[in-house]
């Protein structure tokens, strides 16, 4: 018998496989901690629900006595396994006494499940696959429907989805978020279809500019999907005849009309970091080179939104943490890497 059992997942949305693992965790220990990943991510076709909404789905699928034994621990995506493991361990330690006997319940689905081996101090309970469902299949069926046909679209999968989850999905389809996520889901599918006939999946190369001045950072609001309306640092795709440096200067100028001379930016360049986590972009495997500039106490350069930017703004560094849930893909993590916002940072990627 263990004192605490852990279950780690994203639960986007909750399905029967999740519940089978959760029931095993409840059998293993009087207290269960469910680590809900991708917390504070902005809504996207891959992460359509807030961690609070996912917590509600988990609890609604359980009998009342079991709900009282479950504690939910939200953990952000750090795009760095070592830092993420540290954050999970720190969170669990807050809810368990020293020397507690801890079991980690999970299933090795594929390479993305390797994190289960990252906690050698905990007992690993490796279960076979529970059911045939995965959340990606549910999301694809869900976003291919309309608000009035969600039930029909999910009917072939209903045996693997708790009734409470289906009810939540039907209600969510009538919110303002559903059509926006549907549009982005369709755009991403078209994006992938465009290179589906390639001999192997392409690897995209992008650049980003983290420009700091007077303890403010230059951010944009994205004008187009994916991530329409979300915060990001200026950046974009590398063009065929450019170096990453040339591409960074071009994207900064195109999106913000920042007119700083190249020599000024060269002198302000502090470092360049590569962000290459396989899951950092839903568009496909995308590796970016982020350039960090610090202009010190110089006057804030005049900026104006253009190209792929809907809006530009100088945001105080001290306000970035409160905006975490509004950032596109891993751009909050990118700022965290350079500016040490969360206090849990590591190497890029």
TrEMBL record:
InterPro entries recorded: Cyt_trans-like, NUDIX_hydrolase-like_dom_sf, NUDIX_hydrolase_dom, Rossmann-like_a/b/a_fold
Domain of life (superkingdom): Bacteria
Pfam families (alphabetical): CTP_transf_like, NUDIX
GO molecular function, one term: nucleotidyltransferase activity
Keyword vocabulary terms for this entry: Nucleotidyltransferase, Transferase
Domain Nudix hydrolase: 202-338
SUPFAM superfamilies the UniProt entry points to: Nucleotidylyl transferase, Nudix
PANTHER family xrefs: BIFUNCTIONAL NMN ADENYLYLTRANSFERASE_NUDIX HYDROLASE (PTHR21342:SF0), PHOSPHOPANTETHEINE ADENYLYLTRANSFERASE (PTHR21342)
Protein name in the entry: Cytidyltransferase
Organism for this UniProt entry: Acidovorax temperans
